[in-house]
Amino acid sequence: MTDIKSETAIGAAKPHPERADHSPPPRAVGMVALALMVGLLVVSAAWIARDKRFKGSRILTAAAITIMEEAFTAPAPDVMFRAGAAGLTADLDPFSGYLPPAEFGWFTEEAEGEYVGIGVEISASARGLIVVHVFPRSPAGAAMVRPGDRIIRIDDVSTFGMTSTEAASLMRGRVASDVEIEVVTPTGEVRSITLVRDRVEVTAFPIVGISRSGAAYIRWTQFSAGSGDQLAALAADLAIQDPTGMILDLRGNPGGILDEAVAAAGVFLPPDQLICRLADRDFATQIEYRAVSTPPAFSGPLVIVCDEASASASEILAAALWEAGRAVVVGRRTFGKGWVQSILPLD
Predict the structure, then answer these.
(1) Cβ-count burial 40-56 (b if 16+ within 10 Å, e if not)
(2) Gap between the Cα atoms of 139 and 171, Å rounded
(3) What value does the mean pLDDT take over residues 245-270?
(4) Do the bridges between strand 274-279 and strand 157-158 make them parallel or antiparallel, or are there none, so unpaired?
(5) How far out from the chain centre does Cα 235 lie?
(6) What separation in angstroms does the CA of 317 have from each of 93, 98, 229, 276, 286?
(7) Do 337 and 95 meet the contact criterion of CB atoms below 8 Å apart?
């Protein structure tokens, strides 16, 4: 995925007001935690010493122990080790990363089609946060926030230099809670807007219909679970109205699930048509994905619209249809990802 995401939530557990606190004093807890962490490091070091692949891990272990014992302001052990996990994934490629539990929860919520926030998708840039999509029937939509607007402040926090993840955590929250954003429109108008957070339905196809010229139009915002089958149903319904052609708008679509791109290509391609080929790290194993739909749900003229934020599964679909001679691709050069990622949960 590109660095485009919906705003993301942080939750905090509240203490029970009637429960007595019998925990040991904070210093004792800290000493116990430190001892456990140091012990874990020593055991881990002994185990990985037998595997030559982990020869350099002594540096990591020594650094962690030194920081916990000597740093003027010692970080919480879990914070430090999460930073280590993020560091391990940071140099793999431009797209791999470590998702802490909260962010993984946000990702899962969006994939399931609903979350609590203001209803925008954002992209981080040097000029602040760019709104790339506003969900229908959302607080942001009702307040007339539009794609292309820049969010330069969230409550009292400037967004300059802020990542999209950091911004998302500020914009999400509890249902009915307030958040104030400052927006600069493409024309330079500055607006301060107070929004009330609400449940936002993540709609993969916010705009579908027949234009005045008779062409069918489908706006697709993300390749979420089941959206390939949804596209097939929409294309079949539109085909009944005998359109002059179809426009599939993938602008701002950062991608999503590969299988949904494969299913979508099958809506327009004949059975067994090659869609894409994936290779492993050594290019020793290749997996082919082919169209399985019979017959195609729509066989008329097809145009794919893309821009620089069309990435991943969007690019796979557009390339497959163009290379098969099935569609004309127009717009701007796409993101250019070329990688397929998997989510690997940790215990």
Answers:
(1) ebeeebeebeeeeeeee
(2) 11
(3) 93
(4) unpaired
(5) 26
(6) 22, 27, 14, 9, 18
(7) yes
| Bridge partner list, 277 | 288
User: Concatenated DSSP letters for 175-212?
Assistant: TT-EEEEEEE-TTS-EEEEEEE-EEEE--S-SEEEE-T
- pLDDT for 261-270, tens place per residue? 999 999 999 9
Q: Which pLDDT band holds residue 19 (cuts at 50, 70, 90)? A: very low
Q: Which residue bears the tokens 């962010």? A: 103
- In sequence order, which residues have a C-beta less than 8 Å from that of residue 210 and are 6 or more positions away? 216, 217, 238, 241, 243
216-219/246-249 β-pairing: parallel
Residue 89 φ then ψ, to 5°: -90, -15
Contact 200, 138 (CB under 8 A): yes
- The closest alpha carbon to 208, from 249, 244, 242, 240, belongs to 249
First-to-last alpha carbon distance for the chain, in angstroms, is: 24
pTM of the model: 0.69
What is d(CA 329, CA 105) in angstroms, rounded to the nearest whole number?
35
**Do the beta carbons of residue 253 and residue 310 sit within 8 Å?**
yes
Question: What is the rounded distance in angstroms from the CA atom of residue 300 to the CA atom of residue 282?
Answer: 40
Task: Give yes or no for a contact between 45 and 58, defined as CB atoms under 8 angstroms apart.
Answer: yes
CB of 327 closer than 8 Å to CB of 321: yes
What's phi and psi for 339, nearest 5 deg? -125, 150
